[in-house]
Write a structure and sequence with these properties.
3 domains, 25 helices, about 80% helix, elongated
């Protein structure tokens, strides 16, 4: 059965509830907007529709606040532009173009609802400058009207979301946390078994990182769901940190077990096999408590393993297994705290994010060119409906800029818009022209909106059906004094087609950074963070590094999905960078209390050598002997200054030896992958 038949013939209960809630919120906003006789009631309708895309109560509240805040900032910006260039339309549009570019740039650097707030700031300023351009005296009235309409839509969406079948962000976070933990445990079992199935490894890695990124992004909305919300946010930060540490540790363990199996004795192999099996059992266990008991038993087993007589490298393996189990147990504690934050008090600071300023600049340039082109067309043609085209160009050029495949998403919206044209003509003009009261209006105009929202409840149809709903509203523009003439409808339809066509062409002509450039920039960003890992306080460095690495590893893994299976090596680059960073942070912890200048100098030299070696190995070049010399100098300085205890010095030696082996192996793999790519490209 196709997705459309499945969505409409056998809709899920959640899809039906979503459609009913969104439709009620939209028509409540429309009724109040008509009652208050607002200038453009359809903006209240669109505002409620956008807020119901993710109808969880905390998410709606956060998005509503961001929408109102962005609208207010955009209104102020629009008033300022009009005050400066009230008699000069072209300079006003130039200043507006700069403001739209600034908002798009900020939107590309921010996350989720805050990104949406920046887009609303751009759209609101555009509406004020364009609408009030012909009547500068009405600029303040236009600003107040836009703020009132959008705030009314946000209020109605929040009210309906809270009262009718309320869904909580906390439930969503719990579901995402389950996915993160289960996939991470599957990854642990595969890594410890030294599996060569790269497809399964990458699938479990992406399956853990994708919900982890969504979990971290969405967790901020939990603070709007009562006093326990902040506890859930902290638990989410802990889960993110520990999951990344676990993945980095597992990457190192797999390489040691697979590439140096001759140096690993039978006792350690047996322990590793037991822990791998324990991770599989914990992933299948019913409930957090059962999984925790299994992992704690394995942790006791690992701590009973005698390490005094082991070589430094073998001791490093045992300690790595203990660390992996420790991270897994804390992950389970964080998972439980997301559901029951009162039972467990976890502390963690907010994570940082990876931000690519060059990509954001390209997005801003594209949005500016789209608006400038449509504004020029509007000025030259004096076409009143050119405002609709400018609105769509401003909105969607910024809205889709940060998505993974903006061209495909824009084309999806374009198809939904084409389906909306005959629907809007039939329901929004032919039938709606015969309506005399609001109840009939809701029945007639609500039919296509409900059908669109019902389909949008299916994730596979979200783009088509959401576009169908939004463009039905824009093509109809319900208000107290509607124009039902065919000319007005045809003009709006042409404006919608032109506006969205320009957006599609802009993404095709200026698609953004290519995959190769993005990969190089990601590797360069990881290298820069490794170089700065000893400059800031430890806690701030760990917070910044862990958060950014989640984004980077996920981006590298997605890039791997576009390559042939024998060339998928990029996600391993991210995990190696994460492992190097975590090891450098651990090294800082060990030597944090020493006051010896020689030790500090040697430590900084090791950090710099690790960063340089990572950059060289990522490019497939030999790392040389700089890291070996820096590691030897650090061990000598530690011994001379007595900076570490006798028991911890072998751990330092094993850590440095493992990192050097890891980087040399990565250089060999990247060189081999580069040769394979070159051979395949020549053929």
């Amino acid at each position: 059965m196709s997705a459309f038949l499945d969505a409409y013939l056998t809709p899920s209960a959640s899809a039906v509830k979503f459609a009913i809630k969104a439709t009620l919120a939209m028509f409540l906003a429309l009724y109040l907007a008509l009652w208050f006789n607002l200038d453009r009631p359809y903006w209240a309708l669109i505002s409620a529709a956008f807020l119901q895309i993710r109808p969880m109560s905390g998410m709606v509240v956060e998005k509503g606040l961001c929408q109102i805040g962005g609208t207010f900032i955009g209104a102020v910006a629009g008033i300022v532009i009009m005050a400066l260039f009230v008699q000069a339309r072209v300079p006003a549009l130039v200043a507006l173009t700069a403001w739209i570019m600034l908002c798009t740039y900020a939107s590309s650097l921010l996350r989720n609802n805050f990104s949406y707030g920046c887009i609303m700031a751009a759209v609101t300023a555009m509406l004020i400058v364009v609408i009030a351009g012909s009547n500068p005296a009405s600029v303040f009235d236009v600003a107040v009207a836009r703020l009132s309409e959008l705030a009314l839509g946000a209020l109605c969406a929040t009210l309906v979301s809270s009262l009718l079948w309320p869904s909580q962000v906390s439930d969503h976070l719990a579901t995402q946390a389950d996915s993160v933990v289960n996939q991470a445990f599957t990854q642990a079992a595969l890594r410890l078994e030294a599996s060569d199935d790269e497809a399964a490894l990458q699938a479990s890695l992406t399956g853990s990182l994708s919900p982890l990124t969504m979990l971290e992004t969405d967790s901020q909305a939990a603070r709007y769901e009562g006093p326990e919300g902040k506890g859930r946010v902290r638990a989410t930060h802990v889960l993110t940190r520990r999951t990344l540490r676990l993945l980095a540790t597992l990457q190192a363990m797999q390489r040691l077990l697979r590439d140096h199996d001759t140096r690993v004795d039978d006792g350690i192999r047996q322990l590793t096999a037991e822990i791998a099996d324990g991770f599989r059992q914990a992933e299948q266990a019913s409930g957090v408590s059962a999984a925790r008991e299994q992992l704690q038993a394995l942790r006791h087993r690992a701590h009973r393993q005698d390490t005094a007589s082991l070589a430094p490298l073998q001791r490093r393996i045992v300690l790595g297994l203990r660390e992996a189990l420790g991270h897994a147990i804390v992950m389970l504690d964080a998972r439980e705290a997301i559901t029951h934050p009162r039972g467990r008090q976890l502390r963690s600071g907010r994570l940082s994010w990876h931000r690519d300023h060059l990509a954001a600049g390209v997005n801003a340039l594209r949005a500016g060119l789209v608006f400038a082109g449509l504004a020029t067309f509007w000025i030259l043609t004096h076409w009143s409906n050119g405002q609709v085209a400018m609105l769509l160009g401003t909105l969607f050029s910024a809205f889709f800029a940060s998505r993974d495949n903006p061209v495909a998403m824009t084309l999806t919206f374009f198809k939904g818009m084409l389906f909306a044209i005959p629907s809007a003509f039939l329901f929004g003009h032919v039938l709606l022209s015969q309506v005399s009261d609001f109840v009939l209006l809701a029945l007639v105009f609500g039919t296509p909106l409900f059908l669109g929202l019902l389909g949008a409840g299916n994730p596979r149809l979200m783009g088509h059906c959401l576009a169908f709903t939004i463009f039905n509203i824009l093509l109809t523009m319900p208000a107290n004094g509607m124009d039902f003439s065919f000319d007005s409808f045809a003009n709006r339809a042409i404006a919608v087609i032109i506006g969205l066509s320009v957006v599609v062409m802009s993404f095709r002509l200026l698609p953004g950074l290519g995959a190769t450039v993005r990969r190089r920039r990601l590797v360069a960003a990881i290298t820069r963070d490794l170089q700065r890992i000893d400059r800031d306080p430890w806690q701030a460095t760990e917070t910044r590094f862990a958060g950014r690495m989640a984004d980077r590893i996920l981006a590298l893994a997605r890039h791997d999905d576009t390559l042939p299976e024998d060339q998928r090596h990029l996600f391993a680059l991210g995990l190696t960078g994460l492992d190097i960073g975590n090891s450098s942070l651990r090294l800082r912890q060990w030597l944090n209390d020493t006051r010896s200048p020689a030790v500090k100098r040697a430590q900084r030299r090791v950090h710099a050598a690790l960063a340089d070696a990572y950059a060289e190995s990522a490019a497939g070049r030999p790392i040389g002997d700089a890291l070996t010399d820096a590691a030897s100098a650090l061990q000598d300085a530690v011994a001379d200054a007595d900076a570490l205890s006798e028991a911890r010095r072998p751990l330092l030696q094993g850590l440095l030896e493992r990192l050097e082996l890891t980087l040399r192996q990565q250089a060999e793999r990247q060189a081999a992958a580069g040769q394979a790519t070159g051979i395949s490209s020549r053929h």
